[in-house]
Design goal:
The chain has four helices and no strands. With 162 residues, it is an all-alpha fold. It is found in: Cytoplasm, Cytosol; Late endosome membrane.
Length: 162
């Protein structure tokens, strides 16, 4: 496969062999793109301010230069509007990816917890647990009877066998 076809078919190192980029890689790239677009936004805003200042400076003295400055300002505003829309889309996609990644991690951890619970409960039998609880109840009853017998005062002389 030629280098050009690899380039156009997305044969990059991040996507090769793993079925696509990891969520962390995609998030990093989205953040880089957001940062780049924010810088371009700031640049366009300063250019708009400069063109507006130039149009004011020329005013009625040089109408042609003032009109050219206003036309450039309008182009920059259009570019700025497009960047705003693109940024909104990228932010939405980044947030959706972050939520998906979080949900995946939560689900994975819940699966681990379920496996751990299953392993803990492997050696438990409900019949054995029921028998054990009955034995505990019986032993508590015996302990209570012993405690009652010890705590009753002995009635020497009050009761005797005829």
């Amino acid at each position: 496969m030629s280098k050009i076809s690899k380039f156009f078919k997305g044969g990059g190192s991040a996507a090769r062999g793993r079925g696509g980029p990891s969520p962390q890689e995609a998030l990093a790239r989205l953040r880089e793109t957001e940062e780049m677009l924010s810088k371009k936004q700031a640049y366009l805003e300063t250019r708009i301010e400069r063109e507006l200042a130039a149009a004011r400076q020329y005013g009625t003295k040089n109408k042609r230069a003032a009109l050219q400055a206003l036309k450039r300002k309008k182009r920059y505003e259009k570019q700025l509007s497009q960047i705003d829309g693109t940024l909104s889309t990228i932010e939405f996609q980044r947030e959706a990816l972050e939520n998906s990644h979080t949900n995946t991690e939560v689900l994975k951890n819940m699966g681990y917890a379920a496996q751990a619970m299953k392993k803990v409960h492997e050696n438990m039998d409900l019949n054995k647990i029921d028998d054990l609880m009955q034995e505990i109840t019986e032993q508590q009853d015996v302990a209570q009877e012993i405690s009652d017998a010890i705590s009753n005062r002995a009635a020497f002389g009050d009761e005797f066998d005829e």
